Amino acid sequence: MRKVCAIIVAAGSGRRFGAPLPKQFCELGGRPVLMTTIDRMRRAVPEAELLLVLSSDFVEEWGDKCRKHGFESPEVVIGGDTRWQSVKNAVERVAADTYVLVHDGARPFVMPQVTDALIGALDSGRQGAVPVVDVVDSLRETIDGFPGSRAVQRSRYKAVQTPQAFLSDYLHDAYSRPYRKEFTDDASVMESAGYADIALVEGHSDTFKITLPRDLAVAGLCMDE
Ligand code: CTP
Ligand code: MG
After folding, report:
1. HEC states along 68-89?
2. Which ligand approaches the C-alpha of residue 208 most closely?
3. What's the distance, CA 74 to chain centroid?
4. Which helix (H) or strand (E) holds 91?
5. Could you tell me if the CB of 131 is within 6 A of ligand 1?
6. pTM over 0.90
7. Which region among 55-64, 101-110, 137-146 has the lowest average model confidence (pLDDT)?
8. Taking residues 39-54, what's their average pLDDT?
């Protein structure tokens, strides 16, 4: 069995959420969101070693919160100005020949059936695996600089969640290449480096990302489930 490492990226500032504190430190069930994310990851993948990526501005505060809640923090890595840079900083710390699950700290509800499917896809020889869910809204395509739009066939599109799983050797290579602003997740970074054999596994509606304040209220409901 290969070693497994989970990288939890939580170095963002939560601009869209708009709170004084980045959303991953806001309260969910009486403690920071990030503690639920870490607990759920530990429960889903008990064999995984965890790396937590934080902005240097919040390392001290995180330490205080961990002491206050009697919470054992994973090893901390300092993030960067983009999600890409934050992931890259952690990827550089992972040993060769390791399965890596890259996960958003702002998605507290990690599901074991999803992490099992991701690891299963890597075991079967795929270069990567990502969880996807159906899109619920209708979709239209727009073209830069042109007025108008056209309807596209919704069933051909999927929304991509995290954790996203790859072998560390491939991640090292892909994250050693230059940044492009089109990178929105790890799969897009991998694909642009030529690692396009990425399995789609069934994601879970609870694994939504907290982006706006109302998402935190919904997360509160999921805690009671
Ligand atoms: N992230 C990170 N480092 C960054 C930017 C984002 O580690 N420089 C992390 C966030 O903390 C979050 C995940 O990547 O857990 C997904 O990013 P997103 O939801 O966009 O969070 P923010 O960038 O913090 O929010 P916003 O884009 O609204 O500012
Ligand atoms: Mg962001």
Report:
1. HHCCCCCEEEECCCCHHHHHHH
2. 1
3. 16
4. helix 83-91
5. no
6. yes
7. 137-146
8. 98
